[in-house]
Amino acid sequence: MRRMMLGAAVLAVGVWGCGGSKGNASNGAAGNSTSAVAQSGGSTGPTGNAAVSGVIHFTGAAPSNPKIDMSQESACQGKYKTPPTDPQYVVKDAKLGNVFVYVDSGLPNGAKYTASAPTQIDQDGCLYHPRVFGAVVGQDIVIKNDDNVLHNIKAVPKVNRGFNISQPSAGMTSKRSFSEPEVMVPLECNVHGWMHAYVGVLTHPFFATSDSTGSFSIKNLPAGTYTIKAWHEKLGTQQQTVTVGAGETKNIDFTFSGPKA
Amino acid sequence: MDKLLSWMLPPGASTFVGDIDWIYYLILAVTGIAFVLVEVALIVFLIRYRKRPGRKATYIHGSNRAEIIWTSVTAVVVVIIGILSAPAWNKIKGREGVPPNAMPIGIEAKQFEWNVTYPGPDGKLGTADDFTIRGQLHVPVDRPTVAMLTSQDAIHSFFVPSFRIKQDAVPGMHIRVWFQPTKVGEYELGCAELCGLGHYRMRAVVTVHTQQDYDRWVASQAHSVAQR
Amino acid sequence: MATTATDTSAYTHDHGNAHVDDRPFIRKYIFSTDHKIIGIQFLIMSLTFLLLGGTLAMVMRWQLGFPGKPLPGGTLLPETYTNNGVVLPEFYNSAVTMHGTFMVFFAIMPLLVGVFGNYLIPLKIGAPDMAFPRINMASFWTAVPAGLLMLAGFFVEGGSAAAGWTSYAPLSARSDLTGVHLGQIFWCLSLIILGLSSIMGSFNYITTVINMRAPGMNWFRLPLSIWALFVTACLVLLAIPVLSGAAILLLFDQTIGTHFFDPQAGGQPLLWQHLFWFFGHPEVYILILPAMGMASDIIANGARKPIFGYTSMVLAIISIGFLGWGVWGHHMFQSGMNPTLGTTFMISTLLIAVPSAIKTFNWLGTIWQGNITFHVPMLHALAFVSMFVIGGLSGVFMAASPFDIYIHDTYFIVAHLHYVLFGGSLFAIFAAVTYWYPKMFGRMMNPFWGRVHFWLTLVFYNFTFFPMHQLGLHGHMRRIYDPTQYAFLREMQPVNQFISISAFCLFATQFLFAANFILSWFKGEKAPNNPWLDNGLEWTLPSPPPHGNFATVPTVYRGPYEYSSPHSDLDYIPQNVPTPGGAGAAHPQPAGD
To answer: Are C179 and A163 within 8 A, CB to CB?
Structure first.
């Protein structure tokens, strides 16, 4: 029952995230604040009922995101009411979105997790949704083209084997997965050089991406002591250690500062 | 239908039309005549000399005179074509062919985009007021523009059919390509060297402005930093 | 080496080598050292690759004629090739690449050089076999794994090579630029292995022609097919190692971290082009010279008349062989190489038109005042001349470097290359296969279906490739998955559709040839020794000839083109028949009338 509700919540968040770019100025932060365990629909390694949640704070002046010139791609440009920008910094009310938060160490040795359901990334309005997300080793990543233009999605990992596939028209989907843990694997489109996404591949499903309110939550953890890392595409990585007992939820916050002017 | 089967070149919009198109029509005339002569001779011979009862083929091994005539005529014709074509080649592609007052721009090709860098109001490339735009080539009419062409990754080829200009963009090389548009309007730029999955869509729009409109456009662009 | 006053060969045997081969099946037909069997093995392999190459062309033409529509049968293909049946750009680029690769390296080249070089050289010069029969066997059995490796590219992750048959670096060297890794590696490896096969064949042919001609078979009594194959073998010997070297450098860039073609580390992309085309241009003469030679044999036979200008024809073949080394830069006019080279290569390229023109005029001279029999091989050989003329003339446009600025990498080039390779080489191959089929298999191909196949092919072929000139003049670029992305090409889409439909009909017509080929093997009319009343030495032997060929070493008295000679009542005299006193039999009719 709890799993169904979580699944519904994920679905709702996912739908909101996908539709969120059209007609509004904040394009890109489809927050997956809910734990990826529910999203992946199953795991075989040890889980529990502890959780680590928190908020990513942002101090300093929020840098302005670069404008994107979509004038030569009218099919995408037409989806925006205001000129599109590249959401490198998702800052609202001194909170930072699109920070990838994950368990770096602390799980029992040799714990293996498999995901039975795929995760999905959409190309919509010539931007990736979500921009930052996680996947378990071996988990299918469904890549969908919602634009009626050619996108080619190229993964440029350092450890894993990359891929470079094209989707010439709307509705096309492709599936890929990664076999080694790697944080983060960049994704890019060569037809639209401004398109970037990042996927964190881990051996376990204990990761989350902060949403536009800066919130994240990693659920279903077994009791233990964990090193939690928080990664931002421009502002680097921070880490903290946290210990949770069975059934406990601990809050940890991270603070990133804006780049020096 | 006539347009689809036409041997005419499509209308052009640069001074190179005057340099190149006549070479095509000259070669079309020469090869057209050769084609008709040879194919008609072939068909006539096949009909006239087909096997019929009582006929015998002529026992002849050749004619030195014929060999000399057709060898020299062919050689003279092709050499003339070469001599007539050489000046146009030097003018368009030669290092000394670039007009000294040509407006400089930079074109960097990458999978699968054309990024054009403009010199900005000061007219000089490599200064602070330069700006780069994706997929749009803007040039003034009746003035030469010279582009420094390069590539970021694979070999691409800068091809504007209406300008009759084509030049491969090679990574690691900076190649000068120049042209002078003669008609205001919008034209297409395509990539003419297989460069990967998106090669078929590596397109840009070429806009030829009056000098006035061009200056106005430059002024309006120089303010915004259009990100790729 | 014992020689007599009239004997210009190095033959010391005074008896022939023909004998029954009583070795087990596997030594006789699989691992055979008999040049005739090896020729037939190459024939089966090449015809298979011809069919494969044609199939890939159908995929391309489907997408070009009907962009974005699901390919019939497309849903059966893996999702890396088609998406809901629609051809994907990666599959399109792969089809473009492998169509060219299969056709050039595994169809046309082995059909001309591997099949007819092997089959004809010993027979036509009066030799029992090649100089090195075991190396000959190795040559075929090296080509087979090369072909399988090339095919394997379709079944690995990332798919087959997709950087064009010309495989320009850095696209072909960097898997991050194409999404293809193993496929490109296999392409290089396969060609390196195939190169070994070709080199083995070439020095075998050269040695055989120089050393094993029968008594009286001096150089200027050799058939033009043998002259052409000899010069071709010289080209192969010198050009293929350049390709192998280039492929090795590319393979190293792909695998062990070298940077021969990588400008970021001091390498040069243009190096690949120079190496490839230095091989590539002699390669296209390898792909046409044997066709020209065999067409000459067949045209003289069909016209019942000596070849016009035999010496000029020989000199033309030799000069094409020489001049062909000096023109490679015309493939690179727009490459960014020094513009001065654009002028020098233009001149050398225009000059090489001359020997080809000489040959065309001499073919016309051969049929002029002939007594022409239109047997099926003659039909194809005449089509060869007529279509090759179009291909050769279209080449003049691109030789003029300023106009090449406009048509380089457009469909004008595609039209040109298909007029010389299909209109030229392939029609000559159809002619040659039909002509020597009786000698190879002891049966005639069906002449009625041969004519149907010829006429349908000629019509659909021209409908397919002639409009490509117009596409190119309009600016239609090559290797474009979806031309409708460009406004200036959208209006030409009806032409693309017309071409595609013609291409489907052309492809379907070839099954007539395939059926004729296969069925005639079992059911064809039994062939006499000399169905075409030809003068060549092979036609003095049974169809098929025995292992070892000649029971007695032939002595040659004249050239192979003495048709309608006053020395005979018949309109032909085989090369090994002493000049007759006059007694003649009745005029036999040539087969296939």
So the answer is: yes
pLDDT confidence of residue C581: 57
Backbone dihedral region for residue C209 (phi beyond 0: left; psi -120 to 50: alpha; all else: beta): alpha
Q: Which chain C positions have a beta carbon within 8 Å of A153's beta carbon? A: none
Q: Please, which chains are in contact with B (at least 3 CB pairs closer than 8 A)?
A: A, C
Domain with CATH 2.60.40.420 in chain B: 103-227
What number of C-beta contacts closer than 8 Å exist between A and B? 50
Q: What is the ipTM of this complex?
A: 0.96
Mutant choice from A165, A169, A179 vs C, greatest count of C C-beta within 10 A = A165
Return the SS3 of A236.
strand
Tell me the per-residue pLDDT of C174-185, one tens digit each, with 9 for 90 and over. Answer: 999 999 999 999
Cβ-based contacts of B153 with chain C (< 8 Å): 170, 174, 177
Of A189, A157, A161, the residue nearest C157 (C-alpha): A161
> Which chain A residues have a beta carbon less than 8 Å from that of C178?
164
Mutate to test the interface with C, among A164, A167, A189 (most CBs of C within 10 A): A164
Q: Which helix (H) or strand (E) holds A217?
A: strand A215-221
CB of C271 closer than 8 Å to CB of C261: yes
What average pLDDT score do residues C519-527 get? 96
pLDDT the model gives residue C346: 97
Res C328 pLDDT > 70? yes
Domain range spanning residue A55? 2-257
> Quick one: pLDDT at residue B227?
41
**How many domains does chain A fold into?**
1
CB environment C121-136: b (16+ within 10 A), e (fewer) = bbbbbbbbbbbbbebb
For range C230-240, the mean pLDDT: 98
Hey, which chains touch C, using 3+ CB pairs under 8 Å?
A: A, B
Q: For residue C465, which residues of chain B lie inside 8 Å, CB to CB?
A: none
pLDDT digit string (tens) for chain B, length 228 residues: 667 788 999 999 999 999 999 999 999 999 999 999 999 999 999 999 999 998 899 999 999 999 999 999 999 999 999 999 999 999 999 988 999 999 999 999 999 999 999 998 888 899 988 999 999 999 999 999 999 999 999 999 999 999 999 999 999 999 999 999 999 999 999 999 999 999 999 999 999 999 999 999 999 987 664 443
Residue B198, chain C, CB below 8 Å: the answer is: yes
Superfamily of structural domain B103-227: Cupredoxins -  blue copper proteins (2.60.40.420)
Residues of chain B with CATH 1.10.287.90: 16-93
Is the minimum CB–CB distance between B22 and chain C shorter than 8 Å?
no
Element (H, E) at B84: helix B64-93
CB contact under 8 A, B135 and A190: no
| CB count in 10 Å sphere of residue A21 | 25
Give the integer Cα–Cα distance in Å for C310 and B64: 11
Contacts of C164 in chain B (CB under 8 A): 194
CATH number for the domain spanning A23: value is 2.60.40.420
Tokens 């001194």: give the residue: A94
Single pTM value for the model: 0.91
| pLDDT in the model for residue A45 | 83
- DSSP codes joined into one string, B118-184: E-TTTT-TTSTT-EEEESEEEEETTS-EEEEEEESSS-EEEEEGGGTEEEEE-BT--EEEEE-B-S-
Whether B211 and chain C come into contact, CB under 8 Å, resolves to no
CATH of domain B16-93: 1.10.287.90
Does any CB of chain A come closer than 8 Å to the CB of residue B135? yes
At residue C175, the pLDDT reads 93
Question: Is B46's CB within 8 Å of C408's CB?
Answer: no
Mind telling me how many Å the CA of C93 is from chain A's nearest CA? 12
Inter-chain contact A165–C176, Cβ cutoff 8 Å?
no
Q: What residue ranges define each of the domains in chain C, with the CATH number in brackets? A: 2-11+24-540 (1.20.210.10)
Residue A202 in tokens:
């881990």
